[in-house]
Amino acid sequence: MGSNPDYHRIYNDIIDKKYPDRKKECKTLLAKQNLSILDIIELNRRIFGLSDRSTEAFNQKHRSYDISAILKILDYQKAHKLNNIQLARHFKLSRNTVTKWKRLFLSTSGQDFGKEQI
Predict the structure, then answer these.
(1) 64/16 Cα distance (integer angstroms)
(2) Three-state secondary structure along the chain?
(3) What confidence tens digit (pLDDT) does each residue in 30-45 have?
(4) Are 96 and 89 in contact (CB under 8 A)?
(5) How far apart are CA 21 and CA 47, in angstroms?
(6) What is the CA radius of gyration of the chain?
(7) Of 48, 65, 42, 56, which is closest to residue 117 (Cα–Cα)?
(8) 57: pLDDT confidence band, cut at 50, 70 and 90?
């Protein structure tokens, strides 16, 4: 058993106990074998809806992204032709974070990964 939380169980329990009306709209995400960080963010949005600014700021400070999530976010930017500001707004990130990720993971020499860890 890994050290990661069992998000399937957590979200299924939350939906069953508090939000049974949202089960249908979360079904496809919960059917996935492995949930990515982006899937977790989407589940939170679907279950809990939009939050106020102070709650959003608190939650943002406690998020962490693994390399695969960062690369998916950067791929999303490329696929949707977003600039750093638009990407930051979409995923509720700092513009500086996006810039740092691009510098670390998208070098101009054609390599996909930077040497540094975040």
Answers:
(1) 27
(2) CCCCCCHHHHHHHHHHHHCHHHHHHHHHHHCCCCCCHHHHHHHHHHHHCCCCHHHHHHHHHCCCCCHHHHHHHHHHHHHCCCCHHHHHHHHCCCHHHHHHHHHHHCCCCCCCCCCCCC
(3) 999 888 888 888 888 8
(4) no
(5) 9
(6) 16
(7) 65
(8) low
Nearest to 80 by CA among 106, 109, 104, 72: 72
Q: What contacts 113, CB < 8 A, 6 or more positions away?
A: 67, 105
Tokens encoding 96: 């500086």
* Spatial CB neighbours of 25, under 8 Å, sequence gap ≥ 6: 46
Integer CA distances (angstroms), 41 to 25, 48, 108, in order = 14, 10, 30
Contact 32, 39 (CB under 8 A): yes
Residue 114, classified by CB atoms within 10 Å of its CB into exposed (0-12), middle (13-18) or buried (19+), is middle
Q: What is the pTM of this model?
A: 0.56
Mean pLDDT computed over every residue of the chain: 82
- The C-alpha atoms of residue 28 and residue 42 are separated, in whole angstroms, by 11
Amino acid at 89: R
